[in-house]
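Progress against Task 2.4 (sequence-to-structure conversion) is shown through the following example record, which the project officer requested during the mid-term review.
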Amino acid sequence: FGLNGGYVGSTVSAKVEIEDGAQITATRDVKILANGVQEASLPAITISGNFGWGAAVSIAEIIGEVKADVASGARITVGRNLDVNAFNDVNLMATALTLTTGESLVAATVAYGALDVTTSAKVHSGAIITGGAASNINVSAGNSNTLSTSATAMATAGSVGGIAFAYSDYKARAEAQFGAELGTSGTTVGSLKVQATPDTDTNATSA
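Structure tokens generated for the chain above:
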């Protein structure tokens, strides 16, 4: 028989945290940025001729946490803009192909793709944020996901048949939060934007 299989995994933890008691003062901008890039790509290919069977197994898994965080009790004063941003770029591909020829009986293929990523940008209640009329506050979290899991079994003339199984389990979360007091009736900031964007460009599972 012919057998080919493999596993590839990626685990990332990227955190930028402004803790309780921290004080940051800037005449211009403050940027608090956490970024991650994750890729797990694994093709498993088996070509089997005149054996009882041929099989290919491909397993790809990604686990990630990317966080930009301003804790309660932290103090940030900006002259212009404050950015609290977290972003993760994810690419997962699990591909398995089995081709049997001649007197082989069965072509069997399994592909499994798993994703569990969280991206968060948070300014917690109790944080002290001070800006001016020209200040823009941006709190944003996002992830860009390209996900593909495919299994193909090809049994040529002389073979009995083929079996292909593909399973994907994808979880992608983006969280943005702003809980601090910002501005007063006498002192306002230019703008506040709080945004969470989980963006899955491709989510394909096929067998």
